[in-house]
Amino acid sequence: SALLSARTTAIEEAGIIRMSQKARDLAAEGRTIVSLTLGEPDFDTPAAIRKAAIEAMEAGYTHYGPVPGYPELREAIAEKLRVENGLAYGAGEVVVTNGAKQALTDAIYALVDEGDEVIVLAPYWASYAGIIKMAGGRVVEVASTIDDDFKAPPERIADAITPRTKAILMNSPCNPSGAVYSRAELEALAEVVRAHPHLCIIADEIYEYIVFEGEHVSIGTLEGMAERTITINGLSKSFAMTGWRLGYLAAPAPIAKAASKVQGTFTSAANSFVQRAAIAALKGDRTACEEMRETYRKRRDAVMARLAACPGIETMTPPGTFYVFPDVSALLGREIDGRVLADTDAFCDWLLEAHGLATVPGSAFGDARCVRLSFAASDAQLDDGLSRFEAALKALS
Ligand code: PLP
């Protein structure tokens, strides 16, 4: 429509939304569909956190709070970052947001002018591109494949830096690949960043608790990186709180202040009683988080065992997150059921229409070779879904 801004029309409908809608449409027609598209924990929020929210509501936390969040929560976040991550941000350098997604938005709007470039490490979470474009920035993709363990080598990243580059946006553990950067890999990346004084890192650490092998390292702890790192995190994945919408960023004071100004412009502050519940979550123990991680680990191992029986694909065992990202590129271009599986979209459409399995095409993540399956699903759903996947791939081979 001529009424719409160029900025909104430039944003593509997320591939994941398209696939979920298609799965719902087929289900409404009476088909049995297994959906492994979801990017959220299939667990309930722990009871103690739910109780804290109810108590806060009863206690009158129903009014506007300060834009960057309640001081006690900012203090609890600074303490968490200090104790768990070794990051030395003060409470005044923390901004509480409506989910990590808004933390990313606040950060990018705080940094990016029209035409500025932000490097994203592909495959990457689709929303990054939309946020950067909305802010008037340019998305510069640096690709990696399964042969790189889905981690772009530092030389490749260095080659993409121009005088207009404002930031490198990274995500470890990574949605969709499950890749986790080691300390040595982060050191190499930090060296690239340090060579460019006007460059900063936006580190999305939302999956930090879902690591099965190795350890999660915050790049902001490395030498010379504290003053140029914006750390993004939130409670959605770690505490099974996706619908509560609570996240945060931590950054050097001038950036945190600018991010807070962005947030004050778009939305006043995160929900008041949810912020009080977040204090309880962060100050409480991590038993529930650890139990969820161990459940994801068992599922990951079960999924990998099933994928081993699937011909034609190559899959990295994900060291983190609740996603697997098989490379199906050897199968693209094949003809089956009267259609050509020209790209990952066509592959996923066929998987859904012919075998009743919903997955997300790599194209949704800036990747032309892979498909994403989520194992944030019940054992029964996973078993059924993987049987469908295996049958589909056997039919193709
Ligand atoms: N970052 C990544 C990599 C994600 O996968 C997601 C959610 O899928 C988010 C951020 C957003 O999380 P939140 O619910 O805190 O906005």
Automatic annotation (TrEMBL):
Keywords: Aminotransferase, Pyridoxal phosphate, Transferase
Domain Aminotransferase class I/classII large: 32-388
Pfam families, A to Z: Aminotran_1_2
GO molecular function (one): L-aspartate:2-oxoglutarate aminotransferase activity
PROSITE patterns referenced in this protein's UniProt entry, alphabetically: AA_TRANSFER_CLASS_1 (PS00105)
Transmembrane segments: none
EC number: 2.6.1.-
Keyword Nucleotidyltransferase: no
Name of the top EC class for this enzyme: transferase
Signal peptide: none
Reaction(s) catalysed by this chain's protein: L-aspartate + 2-oxoglutarate = oxaloacetate + L-glutamate
Annotated GO biological process: amino acid metabolic process
UniProt cofactor(s): pyridoxal 5'-phosphate
Protein family according to the UniProt entry: Belongs to the class-I pyridoxal-phosphate-dependent aminotransferase family.
Subunit text: Homodimer.
Name of the molecule in the record: Aminotransferase
Native source organism of the sequence: Kaustia mangrovi
